[in-house]
Amino acid sequence: MTKSIKKFIKNRFPSRSSELTAIRWLRIISLLICYTGVLIYFGWKAYELSQDERTLSYKQDDSSPIPAPKATFLSSYNFKIDCVTFYYDNTTDDCNKYVTNTYYDQYFGGYLLNFSAPDLGFDNPNDNANALSEIGLLIVITDPKFTGGDAGLGAFFADRDTESDLASASKTPRIKGVSGYKSTAELDNSYYLANNQSYYLFYSRNKLSALHQNAKNVLSGNGDHKTITMINSILVSYPNIAVGSYANVIISPNSYIVITETENSDLTVSDFLSAVGGIYTFAMGIYLFLFGSDEMSPWGLIQNLPCARYKVRSALYQSLRPNIPFSGPILSNDLSVDQKFEAMEKRHLALELFLKEYVVSVDNVVKDGAHSEDIEAPAENGVEKV
What we know:
Blueprint: H1 2-12, H2 21-51, E1 54-62, E2 66-67, E3 70-75, E4 79-87, E5 92-94, E6 103-105, E7 110-115, E8 121-122, E9 132-141, E10 153-158, H3 162-169, H4 181-188, E11 190-193, E12 197-211, H5 215-219, E13 225-239, E14 247-253, E15 257-265, H6 269-291, H7 306-320, H8 337-358
Parallel strand pairs: 12-14, 12-15
Antiparallel strand pairs: 1-15, 2-8, 3-7, 3-10, 4-5, 4-9, 6-7, 9-14, 10-11, 12-13
Helix pairs in contact: 2-6
């Protein structure tokens, strides 16, 4: 284990016999800083990915028609609602077919009634002169036990699919900034209705394009969204002018513009890998610019500085002399055969040392058990062990 660690360190921080000690340590420290910085960035991005943070992008559309909202009424006493539609051409129509009969709900402890008009929609009057103008809901308490006063009447207004959509969305773990949509829809569109009052409900339509929690979106963040439609409403009260009613609600659009909020993941797996890979490439690019690569381009900016260039070249020359040039008239010298073979061996070892440190390491091409560390160059000739 220790041997493997030493070998790993030696491979990651190779030393050259011709390298200045100060530059070698500066190179090692810089490489450690690069690796440490990339690891810290990796941890930070991994934490961001685990948070599943999202942002909302907004888009506005001129939608026509705007569907009428669904309304749910709750009272402590039995009641009924008469529905009337008003149009811009001054005509009216009966819309009681969209009103359900009241029933007693044990869970809420009161009487419930729903208004849902899938066929009714508000066109922009600038585009349609005969468009629907208002929907009037006249609320009458029919319970014989009611003697006047407070009927405990409340109303909740929503898009027709909002309640089921929000119920479905609430089963999925939500994220910061979006988890409040369910409570916002329920609270902002819930109202208490008092006796002898009429109300104008002005509303606008919003859409939340919620990003699905699936493998595809976690990986790339593209494509799969579910649209949840909601309304934003304002209830304005004024003295009741409807005879014989408990309260009166008139529904009208506040805006014909539909705002779509689309969820986008701040960070996905592909973004994470790209960011970490990019910062690693950037850090190593700076390192190679300063110190050069391991073999093919061994000198960078640091080694080529005026104050270091001469010392670097001198150190390389001293590590290889007197075996350079690598080829020379050895055989023609007045030497014995053994001396000539010894001189050729020294030059071959010096050439191998040069190739290993400045071209390509022979450790990457020789078989296991035949590493060049087993070959020793004569130290007295200035060539260290390979």
